Amino acid sequence: MTSLLNAQNDSLTPKMFGLDKAKSDVDRYYVLYNMHKAARILGKPVNYSGIGELNIEIPADAQPIPLTGSCDFQHLVLNVTNNSKTLYLFALTQSADTISISKEQVDSGDFSDIARMDTNATYLLVLQDDSVWVDKRQGYSYGHKRKDILVVDKCQAINRPVMPYNTEETILSASICPATRDVKLISNITINRADSNRYKTYCFDVRNQFNVDMSDITINTPPSDFYADAAIRINNCANVRLRDIVINGTYSQTNHYGYGVSMDNVWRSRIVNMKARANWGIFGNNNINDVVLDSCNINRYDIHCYGRDVIMQNCTFSNLYNQFSSVYGKVVFENCIFNNHIPVLLESSYNAFTPFDLYFYNCTFNINSKRNYLVDARDLTNKRNSRSEVSAKNLPNITLSRPIFILTDAVSKLYMIHFSSVSYVGNVGHIERIDINQISVKGGKVQLKVCNKDFPHKDPIRFPLRNEVFGD
């Protein structure tokens, strides 16, 4: 084995680690694990060319297969059986060390007086506010703590957190890890999770990484009784690109959660040409700052709690909703199609109605009488969060430019905002206007209205098309 790993070998292959002699699917798991472990230790790439398809089985003592900085699986088809333990199949992770910084430094972005930071290096600075952002999510046993991640280059942060940290309520904890500028590539693999599995095999665990590019990945999951999936998990990362990802099913039910992609604390993510369907929503995210979806066909994008600046362009959304709470900045849809789909659901169980602006440009809405609204604000109650940033109730300003509404059944009214219930006593802030220009309605006539229920608001809402009828 030593001769196989000497310096004259530019890359490591499964055959070098006994693939031809492997007698079982478990043996083949160990071949991949040992190859990737050696590649990480030696700093060498792996080479899957000519392998084609492999069957592996997860043994009782399995660990995630460690990935190196770049892994092209060369269109490998990997069939995974797991009757031993729940785990992630592949992991691209590094640890982060606790560091002491101040709330003032976080907001200034200047860390030049931190002795542990090399003035010529780049770091990921992982932030957590240990003072709860949301006390308790209604109907659940947990609340929410906000997180942010900063990229610090030469002691200066190149980005900012979603919201300031230098407040009396913030209790800051932080950790740090090195950030190399090379692209961490994971590409060209199909993972088939067997229908006979008695345990869940999650696929990719990516943590504390900068510049990650995952592309040409297909994950196939047969129907099962499993739920709580996170097939691709990405935590504490910056500059993440997901390209040409196909997800056919997840471990989820129509009444039990499970995600194709689960992100927590990610700055600047770009998702391009994703095609995905599942019983539950494909995305389940928290603490997301600066995201773009382009040319995707999915059933849901969401930020459960705490985020800023979302752009979705050339996407098709079907039969569900896009879910947000405690978001700031802008949420923009451009050239998107909504098929029986609620564009924005404000998840009221977090009770975090924060101010943001909502834009639709050149979008097509296939509307039926059961989902005849653009924003589902659920329940507006008198319950207030203790955290000052999320104690007030706000609704977004809405802009629609050149929308096309296609009425698929007898829709008589189209609401910009929809509530299930309104019991709030007070004034709703931020919303001042609803702007619509060059509207087109096909399939009937419809009356435009601000909301299905009266709600108290601080300022008069400018909506020149209030109660007007449009259509064929």
What's the helix and strand layout?
Layout: H1 25-42, E1 53-58, E2 65-66, E3 70-82, E4 87-93, E5 97-99, H2 103-108, E6 122-129, E7 147-153, E8 156-157, E9 172-178, E10 184-193, E11 201-207, E12 210-220, E13 230-248, E14 259-272, E15 275-277, E16 283-294, E17 297-298, E18 302-303, E19 307-313, E20 316-318, E21 321-324, E22 327-334, E23 337-339, E24 342-346, E25 357-361, E26 364-367, E27 373-380, E28 397-401, E29 404-407, E30 413-422, E31 434-437, E32 440-442, E33 445-451, E34 469-471
Parallel strand pairs: 1-3, 2-4, 3-10, 4-11, 10-12, 11-13, 12-13, 13-14, 13-15, 14-16, 16-19, 17-20, 18-21, 19-22, 20-23, 21-24, 22-25, 23-26, 24-27, 25-28, 26-29, 27-30, 28-31, 29-32, 30-33
Antiparallel strand pairs: 5-9, 6-7, 6-9, 7-8, 33-34
Q: What's the shape?
A: globular
Rounded average pLDDT: 96
Number of strands: 34
* Class of secondary structure makeup: mainly beta
Helix content: under 10%
Distance between the termini: 76 Å
What would your notes on this structure say?
The longest helix has 18 residues, at 25-42. It contains two helices and 34 strands. By secondary structure, the chain is mainly β. It has helices at 25-42, 103-108, and strands at residues 53-58, 65-66, 70-82, 87-93, 97-99, 122-129, 147-153, 156-157, 172-178, 184-193, 201-207, 210-220, 230-248, 259-272, 275-277, 283-294, 297-298, 302-303, 307-313, 316-318, 321-324, 327-334, 337-339, 342-346, 357-361, 364-367, 373-380, 397-401, 404-407, 413-422, 434-437, 440-442, 445-451, 469-471.
